[in-house]
UniProtKB/TrEMBL annotation:
Sorted UniProt keywords: ATP-binding, Nucleotide-binding, Transport
Keyword Zinc-finger: no
Statement: the UniProt record of this protein carries the keyword Nucleotide-binding: yes
Ranges where the ABC transporter domain occurs: 4-235
InterPro entries from the UniProt entry: AAA+_ATPase, ABC_transporter-like_ATP-bd, ABC_transporter-like_CS, ABC_transporter_ATP-bind, P-loop_NTPase
GO MF assignments: ATP binding; ATP hydrolysis activity
Name recorded for this polypeptide: Spermidine/putrescine ABC transporter ATP-binding protein
Species per Swiss-Prot/TrEMBL record: Fictibacillus aquaticus
Domain of life: Bacteria
PANTHER family recorded: ABC TRANSPORTER ATP-BINDING PROTEIN, TAURINE IMPORT ATP-BINDING PROTEIN-RELATED
Entry-linked SMART domains: AAA
Signal peptide: none
Length: 259
């Protein structure tokens, strides 16, 4: 049984006068511990698919299963990390990272220590008594990662979490997120427009076409890249070869759209 299974998912947006298909017949299986990236042109439905997986959006057709359980709404074992950190500005970093456990009434001394251990892994334990306004954008995204992992989600959804950061910070955060997810044996689905980011972080890359969004093709990232950190993978000889292959497929998608 697949850890995450999407079966013939489709999404249509209705108005009084029209019905616009956003996704059509999406079927995808993700193994436990796998890192999958969704790539494709703007408007291909990547973020819509992530919302369906999270349970925030009910698909017009099809189903989503997590460990065999049908997702019908927001799920306590699915974490969602967005472009913006959405930290509460009036709460300290410690209060922000513990808010999920408090809301679930699961905050114990042991779990608090586990979250602090995660905070130490990100190198930000010293900020626990500070406020978000005192931290840089990259630091706040690291805090957002700790907050997301604090409730021990089985599945982590990442919607372009590095896109608002400068390039150097982005590369450092890619390494940190990748190492943290591997250490904690997390399954993840990333939405990105960045081919390099998808290659550097993923086990599998899924390309979506547009109008409506459909599965176009899938790439398996070679082990030679997967066993390296994202930064190291970008320096490997296999990286530009895969980049070129994916680029050509994206060009084909755009060509098909223009016909």
């Amino acid at each position: 049984m697949a850890f995450l299974q999407i079966k013939s998912a489709g999404q249509i947006y209705f108005t009084k006068h029209s019905a616009t298909p956003a996704l059509e017949d999406i079927s995808l299986s993700v193994k436990e511990g796998e890192f999958v990236s969704l790539l494709g042109p703007s408007g291909c439905g990547k973020s819509t698919l992530l919302s369906i997986i999270s349970g925030l959006l009910r698909p017009t057709s099809g189903t989503v299963l997590l460990k065999g359980e049908k997702i019908t709404g927001p799920h306590p074992k699915i974490g969602y990390m967005l472009q913006q950190d959405y930290l509460f500005p009036w709460k300290t970093i410690e209060e922000n990272i513990l808010v999920g456990l408090k809301l679930k009434k699961e905050l114990t001394a042991d779990k608090k220590n586990e979250v602090f251990s995660l905070l130490k892994q990100t190198g930000l334990y010293h900020t626990r008594n500070q406020y978000p306004s005192q931290l840089s954008g990259g630091m706040r995204q690291r805090i957002a990662l700790v907050r997301t992992l604090a409730t021990k989600p089985h599945l982590l959804l990442l919607d372009e979490p590095f896109s608002a950061l400068d390039y150097q910070t982005k590369l450092k955060l890619e390494d940190l997120v990748s190492a943290t997810l591997k250490k904690n044996q997390k399954t993840a689905v990333l939405v990105t427009h960045d081919i390099g980011e998808a290659i550097a972080m993923s086990d599998t890359i899924v390309l979506l076409s547009t109008n409506p969004g459909r599965l176009f093709c899938t790439f398996q990232v070679p082990l030679s890249l997967r066993r390296l950190s994202p930064f190291e993978a970008r320096q490997h000889a296999d990286f530009p070869l895969l980049f070129q292959q994916i680029w050509e497929e994206l060009e084909q998608i755009e060509q098909n759209d223009s016909e």
